[in-house]
Amino acid sequence: MGRVLFRGGTILTHDANDHVIPIKSDLLVEEKVIKEISPDIRLPAGSDVRVVDCTNKVVSPGFISTHQHLWQSLCKSLWSEYTILEYLCLGLFDNAHHQPSDIFWAELGGALEGIDAGTTTVMDHAHFHYSPEHSEAAIAALEASGLRAVFCYCPSSRLQKHHPLEVDGDIFCDWSMNKIKDLAQNAPYGDGRVQIGFGLDEFRFDRDTTVKVFKQIKAYGIRHVTTHYFRSPAGAKDSRLALFDIYGIVDPDTHWVVSHATNPAPGDAKLLEKHNMYMSAAPSSAMQMTMGHPTALYHRTEDFFPRASVGADSHAICGSSLPSEMRILLQDARAQFNDSFVEQWKSPVKLNRSVEDVFNLATVKGARALGMADQIGQLKVGLAADIVVYDGSTPALYGGAQTNPVTAIVMLSSPADVELVMVDGIIRKENGILKDVRTVPKDQRWREGASENLTWTEISAKLIEKSNTMRERIHSVDEQQMRKDVMQFLRVDPAVVVG
Ligand SMILES: [Zn+2]
Q1: Based on the number of CB atoms within 10 Å of its own CB, is 323 exposed (0-12), middle (13-18) or buried (19 or more)?
Q2: Separation of 178 CA from ligand 1 center, angstroms?
Q3: Ligand 1 centre from 427 Cα, in Å?
Q4: Which of the listed CATH numbers 3.40.50.1000, 3.20.20.140, 1.10.10.60, 3.30.300.20 matches domain 63-369?
């Protein structure tokens, strides 16, 4: 691994109050960590060091997506017109079309899309476990991808037959709980990059059952939990955070990320604070799917900002670029705030939120949400070398990158401007191109004949082939019948569905 010297860039550091301080400096990486940040670092002659010229470049902390479903990358664009109800009827059980080898390629594709866009850490909400092999394939892909991840194994109801609809709701069955235990006790994976967490979306069991499961999870050594929560006419009306509070399942040593927290109930923000939980805003999916405006940066009565982070959610809905999600989140928060004045025919003197606020959700606050602030989230000596280099001379970034580098990233950039990405001291994207991926011999069972060393061209060819197959499988299902059957299965009140 050796040493890498980022020479002469604009380094985005953070002060103790979370303010971003851009400095002209060098940054030295040794093995997996940031060893030194100072101007004009001199190394002894003959030193084995790789120098990256960062003239006119912006060196940023890698981005942290605290809510994402990497397995959904073979369903790209399929859910971009869905409401939450349509997703529940037509998308939720698309996991049933995935064999373990599909999951391997889907997770690899999702992880690499993130790295390409500057994402270096993902909390992966994984709800596709139809067999123990499904999770093994996912872990193998995460190891190969180079991404840092908290793989949250989410047991969920398994579709057995489309029509008549048959669903296996025994989500805490022996093989599944044994697999979680096995994965957790053998963790971490990928040279320490991949940890095991737990996900749960189905809180339909009684208190004793739920409490018992969370005790088991703790006994397995799992310290990360995630769940979806939003109030919706098509779903739950009650506060799930209040339920967690009553059940007493939030362990103080466990890092909880509650995804969305949209249309919140009164007191929800205080419950996050009380239990030291964080929320993850996923603006594209929430705003599209009738789940409500994101709450991370603005809400009329509750303040979620102290406990907020951001995620890209679903590849089947939107791209996984976090700067893109940051931009949507920021402008929506500003629009809601501005509207609250305009409704009274007044005009605010200033905007309510800044690009720095939203940039921090994907960096320092994302790290806090995962309980990893001592490892990732900022460019600081001693922290892991998770680094993104933006080319400040591209058509999108020139001028902005030199004047307001954080604004340039949040408001102007796309993944095409990301020149280099390093995760855990290893360069995974260079000169704007993803580096080859090395799998291991035991992954052969998932690769389906593909070679051990994979170029992006080979990977994308396989992903296109698999996406085509997935689309055919999904479109072979009778859509109208599924809408009817799943509505009944989920006990959605037809009276709330209009249009
Ligand atoms: Zn989600």
Answers
A1: buried
A2: 25
A3: 29
A4: 3.20.20.140
Q: For the stretch 105-132, what's the b/e string if a residue is b when 16 or more beta carbons lie within 10 angstroms of its beta carbon?
A: bbbbbbbbbbbbbbbbbbbbbbbbbbbb
Cα–ligand 1 centroid distance for 69 (angstroms): 6
Question: Residue 58: in which H helix or E strand, if any?
Answer: strand 57-61
The pLDDT assigned to 1 comes to 58
Query: Are 345 and 305 spatial neighbours (Cβ–Cβ below 8 Å)?
Result: no
| Domain ranges across the chain | 63-369
Q: What is the Å distance from ligand 1's center to 289 Cα?
A: 11
282 alpha carbon – ligand 1 mean position (Å): 8
Question: Which tens digits make up the pLDDT trace of 188-234?
Answer: 999 999 999 999 999 999 999 999 999 999 999 999 999 999 998 87
Q: Is the pLDDT at 497 greater than 80, yes or no?
A: no
Give residue 250's pLDDT. Answer: 97
- Cα 280 to ligand 1 centroid, rounded to whole Å: 10
The Å distance, Cα 307 to ligand 1 centre, comes to 18
Element at 252 (helix H, strand E):
none
pLDDT score of 61 more than 80: yes
Residues with CB in 5 Å of ion ligand 1: 313
The pLDDT tens digits for 137-170 are 999 999 999 999 999 999 999 999 998 999 999 9
Q: Does residue 499 carry a pLDDT above 80?
A: no
33: pLDDT confidence band, cut at 50, 70 and 90?
very high
Contact criterion met (CB below 8 Å) for 79 and 112: no
